[in-house]
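subagent[fold] <- orchestrator: predict structure for attached chain, return tokens only, no commentary.
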Amino acid sequence: MTNTAPSPELLARLVCPITKGPVRYDPASNSIISPQAGLAFPVHDGIPVMLPEQAATLED
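subagent[fold] -> orchestrator:
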């Protein structure tokens, strides 16, 4: 899998599937970050995997 960022158009439409709050892309971890939920959702080939069971817990 490549480390490809999601398109800006897609990022503008994404929300956290748990909190329905805003998310952001983190290029360092190639993840979609939900600060409210404290989760990082993986991105595979530019496609965010917004499944709670696939998310990693953010470290403080």
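orchestrator: received. Logging for downstream: The beta strands are 24-26, 31-34, 39-44, 47-48, 56-57. Residues 8-13 form the longest helix (6 residues).
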